[in-house]
User: Fold this.
Amino acid sequence: TGVGKSTTLHYLSGSLFAAEGDHYISIEIKNPALAEVTTSSSPASETRYIKCIPIKLTDLGIQKSGYAYFLDLPGFEDTNGPEVDISNAVNIFHTLSECKSVKPLVLISLDSLGVRMKGIKKLARILAGMLPGVQQSLEKSPFTYLFTKFPPEKIGSIKSSIEKVLATLTPEEEADKGFCNIIEDIIYKIQGKPLTIKPLVPQ
Assistant:
């Protein structure tokens, strides 16, 4: 919650933004399906229900007819309480199980990393739980990681910070192969430069 999921959907659909303090507000929505997908500067959760958003492949720079379908999902650690968190997790699991293929786009914000990178460990456990028992190779991992709300001067240190997490795992954490796979996957996927967006710069 609060990492910018709805903002990212608007950006991918060509919405235009204006800055409001440290946040972005959509001021021109080009995809009608996003009319009820709200963005705001509030830290409270904006996404209450799963929404399916069709985006033309040509709008994503893919020169083919047809659509990609993006799911705007409620975040974890929802500001409405743990009961809502559990309900969201169940709904997400059932929704993903009905899809023929899924390519999860995982958003990681600076604030979500937490103190001493505890947030990245919590994220790794959540993602490992989505693929129980799967010993995935890094090349075949379905996850893509997008880093949001990082000031430019901190983008370059993301990879080294997560590498330190991997290097300082406890014996119990090292024994959890699914958990370790996810952390290794995040590091592998950000070789070179982490994936980010700039909402004020139209794609």
In short: Residues 41 and 125 are 28 Å apart (CA to CA).
